[in-house]
Amino acid sequence: MPASPSTARAINDRLALRLLQEQGPLTAGQLKQLTGLSRPTVADLVERLTEAGLVAVVGESGEQRRGPNARLYGIVADRARLAALDVRTEGVAVLVADLLGGVLAEASVPIGGDMGTGPAVEQAVAVVERTAKEAGAAPLHTVGIGAPGLIDPATGELRDSSGLPEWHRRLVTALHERLPARVIVENETNLAALAEQREGAARGRDTFVLLWLGLGTGAAVVLDGALRRGASGGTGEIGFLPVPGTRTLPSATDCDGGFHSLAGSGAITRLAGEHGLFTADTGGEPQAAVLVRRAVEAVAGGGATAGTAAAPPPSEAGPEQAGRFLDALADRLAIGAASLAAILDPGCVVLGGEVGQAGGAVLAGLVEARLARMSPLVTEVRAGVLGGGAVLRGALLTARDGAQDELFAPPER
Fold first, then answer.
1. Which helix H or strand E contains 74, and what residues bound it?
2. What is the average pLDDT across 117-123?
3. CA angle 291, 296, 299 (to 5 degrees)
4. pLDDT tens digit sequence for 133-154
5. 3-state secondary structure of 84
6. CB–CB of 240/263 below 8 Å?
7. Residue 371, pLDDT score
8. Distance of alpha carbon 123 from alpha carbon 131, whole angstroms
9. How far apart (Å, rounded) are the C-alpha atoms in residues 169 and 171?
10. To 10 degrees, what angle do helices 28-35 and 39-51 make?
11. Residue 286 and residue 213 in contact, taking contact as beta carbons nearer than 8 Å
């Protein structure tokens, strides 16, 4: 059954807007070429989107740079303000951006474990409001939040998870109440996977697993282009996976004895110490990530890994000690990666978070070599390129998607 005229218009409008969002300003002629639509249809949709305040003439193109055919149309970035939050146990990072993702303001605030729930919520909400005000007078349209813990697939709300501060859940409620904005909450590892797929190591992959290696551990599963959350929102809680090499089994309330005991930040730091690698200077970066990066540099002869500044080698550790540490760490990470590969056959595992980024191609290669020996399933291992910043970036992408779903549906004429 053919689409109705109104449905066809909506489809064409969304297609044009997506092209403008992905490729930047375009002329009507370029839109015609990219969409395959007729010249009159493109002219109508450009007029419709302009009247809706979604697109505007932003310049001219071509040799003569004048006339209707030379006009460049672009999305009106100020049409909506977006906010992204990365909620950690020790604080909150926030940024405010325009509809195209251009960052207008950003801030962070530490929240100590001894701070009460009420003051913690108030401090977190205040930094969001302050950052939004700094970004300009326009109200927030959509807020994307990345948080540890489970997201209820039925309600989209952060569940009451053991071990997480109460202020996490209260913060979401407070933002709903105090901001004139739509609020979307997602698990932090899922957001990191979204960011790595759109802008990082998983580009071009519609099936992969992201293994999060930060303060804690987690996994995000993307199969056939869809993020999988599971019946209770718990897909990827790999920290609770029972593993060899621990003295106990994890429980429903404690992942001690699970994969977290091998690959969490504290476990990696202790493993480094066992191999003579120590550091006191982290510059605010997680200690485990610093140790892994410096081990990679030591193995490479002291040269900095790609995208990082040069750093002194681990305390008293030479290339052999650093190499043994990375081998031992790869043994541990391969246990979790092999478990994911055996069940899901994703074809690609991305080592995400601060540790995955710090290990780079060296650590990824070591883990991939072990997987090749452990499993008949061919699995590529890639190093995440966005590190801990992937959560905030994924939250912004989620907010932008949510805003565009609403805004990119212009009213019928």
1. strand 71-75
2. 91
3. 125
4. 999 878 899 999 998 888 877 7
5. strand
6. no
7. 97
8. 12
9. 5
10. 120
11. no
Contacts of 237 (CB under 8 A, 6+ apart): 150, 218, 219
Cα separation, 37 vs 262, whole angstroms: 55
Q: How far is CA 299 from the centre of its chain?
A: 29
Tokens of 348: 């690609």
Question: 3-class DSSP state for residue 317?
Answer: coil
Per DSSP (E only), the strands in 214-337 are: 217-223, 226-228
Residue written as token pair 């969409």:
35
Q: Say what the pTM is.
A: 0.87
Please give the pLDDT value at position 244.
Answer: 82
How many helices (H) and strands (E) are present in the chain, helices listed first?
12, 12
> Per-residue pLDDT tens for 198-220?
999 999 999 999 999 998 899 99
Rounded distance, CA 376 to CA 373, Å?
Answer: 8
Other CB atoms within 10 A of residue 137 CB: 7
Strands 140-147 and 217-223 come out as unpaired
Interhelix angle 117-135/166-178, nearest 10 degrees = 40
In the structure, what pLDDT confidence band is assigned to residue 413 with cuts at 50, 70 and 90? very low
Q: Helix 5-23 and helix 28-35: axis angle, to 10°?
A: 110
Is the distance from CB of 360 to CB of 386 less than 8 angstroms? no
d(CA 56, CA 74): 6
Condensed to tens digits (0 to 9), the pLDDT of residues 37-70 reads 999 999 999 999 999 888 999 888 765 556 667 8
d(CA 330, CA 391): 24
Strands (E), 284-384: 348-352, 380-383
Q: How far is CA 212 from CA 191, 192, 195, 254, in A?
A: 11, 8, 13, 18
Distance (Å, rounded) from C-alpha 6 to C-alpha 155?
A: 31
Beta-carbon-side half-sphere exposure of residue 279 (alpha carbons within 13 Å) = 24
Apex 155 CA angle, 149 and 156, nearest 5: 45
- Mean pLDDT value across residues 311-330: 79
Element (H, E) at 199: helix 188-199
